[in-house]
Specification:
single chain; mainly alpha
């Protein structure tokens, strides 16, 4: 030991130098947990699920239920009954019913005078007697010829039955006011009227006459929109 080391002031100086040069102590950081906090995560999940159930509409929860009952459809309300279907199938269309009602011309009294026939020279396909009989029958029996069709194509002229080929207009009692000259120059019109007149004379009903005329002239390409004969 030298002379300085024995001095008290030297020892104090040396002690201060050691303290100054000493490394500062560093507190170790707390160790990280070895595993995640499962209890905390589970608790948060339970709380979130409870909140979701409270906020979710009850109706939507029902829609998610696979066992929820589907809406029931009454099969009876969607199916017509047999009686209703049969009645509908047998119903005459309204347009045809209106035509039938409008064609019910009164049968004129037998004493009703007929206007003179307007002869059309050089265009008469049948004898004057046959033509006169056809016009007379059409005038006297609208209840027959209005239900007998014509097949000459006169529907383009607005005719709806064989009677229109001979009579243009009638009075309120069914008697003829004006003739239609179309029938005078048309063989088909005259022959249909003559056939109907002969069958009526033999006792055939209007429905029988209609069926026979339809059958005889079925090969003709056109036909008037004539209503069916009444029962």
């Amino acid at each position: 030991m030298d002379a300085f080391s024995s001095k008290p002031w030297y020892r104090i100086h040396l002690t201060r130098m050691k303290i100054t040069n000493r490394s500062p102590r560093v507190n170790p950081s707390p160790s990280s947990p070895s595993s995640p906090p499962w209890i905390l995560i589970a608790g948060v999940s339970v709380v979130a699920a409870a909140v979701g159930l409270m906020l979710y509409p009850a109706g939507q929860l029902d829609s998610l239920d696979p066992t929820a009952a589907e809406p029931q459809v009454d099969p009876i309300s969607n199916v017509r009954s047999g009686t209703e279907a049969e009645a509908s199938d047998n119903t005459i269309p309204q347009q045809e019913a209106d035509v039938v009602a409008s064609r019910q011309t009164p049968v004129p009294p037998t004493s009703a005078a007929l206007p003179p026939l307007p002869l059309v020279p050089n265009m008469v396909p049948r004898s004057p007697e046959v033509i006169r009989d056809a016009y007379t029958f059409a005038a006297r029996r609208p209840d027959i010829l209005e239900y007998v069709p014509c097949f000459c194509g006169c529907e383009t002229a607005g005719h709806s039955g064989n009677a229109d080929c001979f009579v243009d207009s009638r009075n309120a009692d069914g008697s003829v006011r004006d003739w239609d000259t179309h029938g005078m120059a048309c063989t088909i019109c005259i022959d249909v009227a003559r056939d109907a007149m002969q069958m009526h004379t033999s006792g055939a009903t209007v429905r029988d006459i209609r069926a026979a005329i339809d059958s005889k002239y079925s090969n003709y390409p056109s036909q008037t929109p004539t209503p069916s004969a009444p029962h």
